[in-house]
Amino acid sequence: MGIFSGYSGLRVIAEGLTGNKGWKPVWRDPAPKDSYDAIIIGGGGHGLATAFYLAKNHGMTNIAVLEKGYLGSGNIGRNTTIVRANYFLPGNSEFYSHSLKLWEGLEAELNYNVMHSQRGIINLFHSDGQRDAAARRGNAMVNQGDDAVLLDRPRLRRMLPYLDFDNARFPVMGGLYHARGGTARHDAVAWGYARGADMRGVDLIQNCEVTGIDIHAGRVTGVQTTRGPIRAGKVGMVTAGRSGQTAAMAGMRLPVESHVLQAFVTEGLKPAIDHVVTFGMGHFYISQSDKGGLVFGGDIDMYASYAQRGNLPAVEHVMEAGMALMPMIGRARVLRSWGGIMDMTPDGSPIIDKTPIEGLFVDCGWNYGGFKAVPASGWCMAHLMATGESHEVARRFRLNRFETGHLLDEEGTGSQHNLH
Ligand SMILES: Cc1cc2nc3c(=O)[nH]c(=O)nc-3n(C[C@H](O)[C@H](O)[C@H](O)COP(=O)(O)OP(=O)(O)OC[C@H]3O[C@@H](n4cnc5c(N)ncnc54)[C@H](O)[C@@H]3O)c2cc1C
Fold this sequence. Notes:
Mean pLDDT: 94
Oligomer: single chain
Bound molecules: flavin-adenine dinucleotide
CATH superfamily of the largest domain: FAD/NAD(P)-binding domain
Low-confidence stretches: 412-416
Number of domains: 2
Structural class: alpha/beta
Number of strands: 18
Strand content: 25-35%
Number of helices: 11
Distance between the termini: 43 Å
């Protein structure tokens, strides 16, 4: 690929001087075929990554991703972009560790700039009990082969001088530092996986809503869509906040509730916040985007909803938590806020499993934290759909754990959700 044809600085200049007429669509816009070997319902991060790894790792290319809107219109393009491997429980720990390793090679793997930035995450603690919990979690992370450093207050103060150390309602006593954690550009992750899957022959079909799942004699045979019926021997339901509705089409009731989570971005500011920082006493997390906006969020709206917008009590709650931690952000003006629909499980951990229907698979329950899981989720879901066996790092994400009581009670965000 020449410097004037692929992605390069010279290409950008050349296109800018000639009216930007030379750019081609990055993926095709195919019409759905009558039949595929496998169908993925949902063109979010997890669905696209599943398709990519089905093609790349397992040589399955006669597959389609069916997306009711446009690629990246769901949570994959709505999150606060935090990537980390700081889980405590066996079952989650090895999965997120695997995911972080995939993130570290993702740009080379996709040949696409997803702006993965390992700027480090600092989880603050505010009491002796929280410090003990942070130390235990840090030890678990190190035992898993990941990194963690317990920061005392003087060191933290040097690293994060903008925190309110002197007058805070909850004294900042230190932090757990995870240097390999950070952020990535969310929609670039969707585009990168989409491009990689399309290049391998996967059909990415947008504006194609699945309206029914066809089952005969306990076996999936295809789907009904707004663009006609499509046959397939394997179907993966990867619809995040809509998972309950999708599974209902197959007569299943999932242990998933949908709730709105909101995010906020301020006007662009000079670099002020170098890391991702989370508040241990309020549910609040913040980073600064490459454009300078402060990107932050907090709790879900506590009532169940499919609306992709939130309400004012959660806004007030998030702003209060931010102000309590770093009063300087009170001067920044919020430019935008939005909501996404979260697929919340009772134990906060995900599901990647077969269903009782032969050929029908489910990947859901990503709670607050499914962005960082995208690479490993795609990897493990593809493994499951191709081989019929759970991947070893996802073997605890079973659907029947809610029946048997083998819960992974981590809340998907750390051992306590406010520790993130
Ligand atoms: C505000 C916010 C902040 C977050 N912050 C973080 C964070 O910092 N770090 C982190 O790790 N995670 C975070 N998350 C969580 C993360 O974004 C999600 O867990 C993850 O993106 C969900 O998986 P997905 O990308 O596949 O979902 P989506 O992008 O929502 O993909 C699902 C797709 O399925 C499609 N679909 C649904 N029904 C059908 C149907 N019937 N037919 C066809 N298509 C259908 C939808 O249109 C959608 O595009 C955040 C989420 C939100 C909303």
